[in-house]
Amino acid sequence: MSERLEKLFCPDSVAVVGASNGFDKLGYHVMKSLIQGKYGGEIFPVNPKGEIVWGLHSYPSLRDIRGTIDLAVIVVPASLVPQVLHECGQKMVKGVVLITAGFREIEDQKGVVLEREIRNIADQYALPILGPNTFGFVNPTFEINASFTSELSLLEKGGVALVSQSGGIAHLCGFLATEQRIGFSKLIGLGNRCNVDFAEVLGYLVERDKATKVIALYLEGLDRPREMVEAAKSLRGTKPIIAYKAGKGEKSDSASRFHTGSLAGNYRIWRGAFRQAGILEVSSIEELLDTAKVLDSCPPPGGPRIAVLSSQAGPGMVASDAIEKSGLKLSHFTARTQDRINSLLPPIAMRTNPVDMGPAWYSPQDILDLFEAVLEDEGTDGIIFMAMYASANENLANEIAQYVKRVDFLGKPVVACLSAPREIWNDAITGIDKRKGFAVLPTPERSVVAMGNLWRVKLIVDNGG
Amino acid sequence: MSERLEKLFCPDSVAVVGASNGFDKLGYHVMKSLIQGKYGGEIFPVNPKGEIVWGLHSYPSLRDIRGTIDLAVIVVPASLVPQVLHECGQKMVKGVVLITAGFREIEDQKGVVLEREIRNIADQYALPILGPNTFGFVNPTFEINASFTSELSLLEKGGVALVSQSGGIAHLCGFLATEQRIGFSKLIGLGNRCNVDFAEVLGYLVERDKATKVIALYLEGLDRPREMVEAAKSLRGTKPIIAYKAGKGEKSDSASRFHTGSLAGNYRIWRGAFRQAGILEVSSIEELLDTAKVLDSCPPPGGPRIAVLSSQAGPGMVASDAIEKSGLKLSHFTARTQDRINSLLPPIAMRTNPVDMGPAWYSPQDILDLFEAVLEDEGTDGIIFMAMYASANENLANEIAQYVKRVDFLGKPVVACLSAPREIWNDAITGIDKRKGFAVLPTPERSVVAMGNLWRVKLIVDNGG
After folding, report:
1. Residue A265 in 3-state DSSP?
2. What is this model's ipTM?
3. B148 vs A347, A390, A419: nearest CB
4. In chain A, what residues touch B26 (CB-CB under 8 Å)?
5. Distance from CA of B90 to the nearest CA of A (A)
6. The pTM is what?
7. Residues of B numbered 219-258 whose beta carbons fall under 8 angstroms of chain A's beta carbons: which are they?
8. Residue A250 has pLDDT above 70, yes or no
9. Contact at 8 Å (CB) between B324 and B330?
10. Which is nearest to A150 in space by CA: B92, B395, B422?
11. CB within 8 Å of chain A, chain B residues 76-105
12. Looking at chain B, which terminus has fewer C-beta neighbours within 10 angstroms, N or C?
């Protein structure tokens, strides 16, 4: 089933129905996204006026296009959509992104009727529709931005597929991800899920999309929750799936109906379903992104025993507190490891876990030796590595980045909370982030929470594998 | 008592004892901070070689300087500190920043002895010492960066005074604050608190420092916790004090002893003390900064009834969930307000609280009218305003920024979660942030948590006022 999404997400040609030169039209912004996002396939603007659109010859209708169309992005008014879908079917279009809103998400019964109509048309031609009422999708791997937001092309390539029921949340995640250097394989807005729902997309991402390593879901409410849960269950043990569920309270539940036409449903039932399905639930948007980044970058820990290596004692204490309440444990170093640490640090600092690396701070080699001693420690399954760089530490920051370039994949997860003035950051910190088993996050607490989730996902995968 | 800190934090002249031209010396970086931070007073580098340091004539010792020295920043080895302090006393220096480490924070008993010695010398001359074992301080209001990290001069001016027991945490907060546009009146590292402790600094910030509107504390453990609590109690109802306490667990507690020479102590006792003292405790570094920003930017809400205005339904649901668990309530609009909203929004979107402003998204005036209707609503005490801008919304983003320029102070707190591609961000979002009662935070959840803390601080101030 999921193979029918192949050409939707990786099309060799795209028609934009409603393409426009007017800044206030969504058809303008879809064209901008495709062109400025450097989409490599053929683009066919469709516009009744037949004028030049974004420098390209346009066509009055889909019928007038010669050659194959894999994907049609539709931004015409709702009333015109049925006709356009018929043309898509006749033209053997392989997939549709239906950005147009005004279907079952509106209060007026006409919306429900119209959505039923387009669904029937889609069924007739076996045409998968992403949407309606979606912003579209971005596939950084394939270098296509099929959305109305051209800046989403700034997303880095990576292994995270985010599937969102809300365009607003997808945008928020996209912008946060760009700032925090989270690499995406897909950013998908499901909208009203006319005939492409979570279950099918999950199947596609797990079974057919090699670029995707982690799946992050933003859910509100579903018409067929069981279908999604069953799909996730059948995929359990393959790729990690994490989810953030909105509509937990009474008020936001009823808000959901207006938004995407589905009640959010009883939250307790959802929690049970996630557990059954092997989906790790997280409790904030930031936690969803942080966890996805760490899952994409780090190997799973062999156990919950974590070492804290900090350049300064304060962040070490904060991380230790977070570990004690996160389901992880501070590791006990073996005697051999402790000897190595003691030979590198004078007895003026905390040398057991958490380790205050402060006194070695001006000797990059000692810091690296400390790191390796703890990495090799048999009692340690993962490392929280923390450094708040001052300008005096620029050499050290660069030495650590060089080390990461040099070494092989670490084998244990290292979540690093590195903070620095912007000029140091750019060179030294991006050189470490998402490489060889390292992932950089902004605070000690968020680093520990993400490490805890990495461990929980390992338990889920082990139980389901 | 606290008046003796006046010239320490606002000195007309500064001597740097241990000033250096060598990049690997802290005395180099302190000079860089003062000079590149555009400190306007006189700078006297002190260096035994008497060479030109950072382009300035240097002096072999403090005794060789003619004229008054308000502040001495000391970065010489620990063993030389007693002699330098005697010179400070004789020279009538008004305050000292003692960056040098190697005192009671080290395991060796010599450190304790040496710290006792310098404390006695300081008492003899009534000389306040910030430190030892501190990174220094930054006073953006007075434009002095008396720390070894020149990039801390990038801190924006504002009303937040952060007093930290850890230099690492102070650096982390400083770097995060620069990215998130939090304005500081002071960033102070207390280090070992030889003779200047939280209590005295609190007194100074509340009673003498007009620039400070909010005080944020990072605490590990104190020798004289009662003193701090009593000081806060006596200041209750003046300026809000919020605190993050590390060393909650067993492990991090014992780590604290190594760090600043004090046990962190039983966390439950601390919680009670904070409550008594009217200090709002927060549970993460980010929450400390977010709450400080909102307290600095927004008026207190008259009650816990919050309206959620969102450009997209998803973020509105997330915020509603957060409100239901934060001690706040979703407000009920009066009939008049609901009529105004209904006249601006078609019945296709959620028009009760949370309000989905989506359908009005292409009409800036309608969005502003919606905002004003809810701002004037008698049943609403504060607003969470959310917009995830796509490039198509650049005009709207700018219109909203223009509106904020035009209007008077709002009278009710508005915490705004605005996210956007960087090019929109720079103009439109910074034009709103920290103006007229608006504060911008990065996610719906963090916006709501900070609003909840704003309300809790209001309750504390009312009870103590």
Report:
1. coil
2. 0.95
3. A390
4. 392
5. 32
6. 0.95
7. 220, 246-252, 255-256, 258
8. no
9. yes
10. B422
11. 102, 105
12. C
* Confidence (pLDDT) at A252: 58
Residue type present at position A278: G
Whether A251 sits inside 8 A of B175 (CB atoms) is no
Residues B418-463 pLDDT 10s: 998 877 777 788 889 999 999 999 999 999 999 999 999 999 988 7
Per the listing, tokens 């009055």 go with A60
Instruction: Among A273, A297, A321, give the residue marking a domain's end.
Output: A297
| pLDDT, tens digit, 9 for 90 and up, residues A82-130 | 999 999 999 999 999 999 998 988 777 899 999 999 999 999 999 999 9
Asked if B164's CB is within 8 angstroms of A314's CB, the reply is: yes
What is the average pLDDT value for chain A, to the nearest integer? Answer: 92
Give me the pLDDT at residue A361, please. Answer: 83
Question: Which of A171, A218, A258 is closest, CB to CB, to B313?
Answer: A258
Q: Which domain holds residue B46?
A: 1-133
> Smallest Cβ distance to B148: which of A148, A247, A392?
A392
Q: How many CA atoms lie within 13 A of B182 on its CB side?
A: 33
- A20 reaches B (C-beta below 8 A): no
Question: Which of A250, A255, A321 comes nearest B248 by C-beta?
Answer: A321
Chain B environment of A164 (Cβ under 8 Å): 314
Do B247 and B367 have their domain in common?
A: no
Note whether B444 contacts A24, CB cutoff 8 Å: no
Is residue A266 within 8 angstroms of chain B, CB to CB?
Answer: no
For residue A27, what are the contacts with CB-CB under 8 A and spacing of at least 6?
A16, A18, A19, A20, A47, A75
- Asked, for residue A48, whether it belongs to a domain, the answer is yes
* CA A181 to each of CA A160, A289, A382, A425, B105: distance values in angstroms, whole numbers, following the listed order: 11, 10, 22, 12, 37
Q: Do A403 and A365 have their domain in common?
A: yes
Lowest-confidence region among A191-195, A263-267, A354-358, B219-223: A263-267
Alpha helices in A244-334 (DSSP H): 250-260, 267-277, 285-297, 313-324
In whole angstroms, give the CA distance from residue B48 to residue A361: 26
What is the percent of chain A where pLDDT is above 70? 96
Residues B285 and B406 in one domain: no
Window 299-328 of B, Cβ < 8 Å to A: 310-318, 320-321, 323-325
Cβ contacts (< 8 Å) between B189 and chain A: which residues?
Answer: none
- Choose among B297, B42, B65: nearest CA to B160: B297
Residue A263 has pLDDT above 90, yes or no: no
Sort out which chain A residues have CB atoms less than 8 A from B168's CB and list them.
Answer: 310-316, 386, 388
In chain B, what residues touch A420 (CB-CB under 8 Å)?
175
Task: Give the pLDDT band of residue A445 (cuts 50, 70, 90).
Answer: very high
Q: Please check whether residue B300 is in contact with residue B413, taking contact to mean a CB–CB distance below 8 angstroms.
A: yes
* Least confident piece of the model among A137-146, A281-290, B55-64, B392-401: B392-401
Q: Rounded distance, CA B463 to CA B327, Å?
A: 18
Q: How many domains does chain B have?
A: 3
Is residue A219 located within the same domain as residue A305?
no
CB contacts < 8 Å between A and B, how many? Answer: 270
Within 10 angstroms of residue A10's Cβ, the number of other Cβ atoms is 18
Which residues from B are below 8 Å from A167, CB to CB? 312, 314
Q: In CATH, what number is assigned to the domain containing residue B182?
A: 3.40.50.261
A348 interaction partners in chain B (CB closer than 8 Å): 102, 105-108, 111, 258
| Whether the Cβ atoms of residue B277 and residue B233 lie closer than 8 Å to each other | yes
Q: Which of B297, B321, B337 is the last residue of a domain?
A: B297
**pLDDT, average across residues A312-335:** 94
Q: Is the pLDDT of residue A251 over 70?
A: no
Task: Tally the C-alpha atoms within 13 A of residue A8's C-alpha that lie toward its C-beta.
Answer: 28
Q: State the CB neighbour count (10 A cutoff) for residue B360.
A: 22
Burial of B396 (0-12, 13-18, 19+ CB in 10 A): buried
pLDDT of residue B81: 98
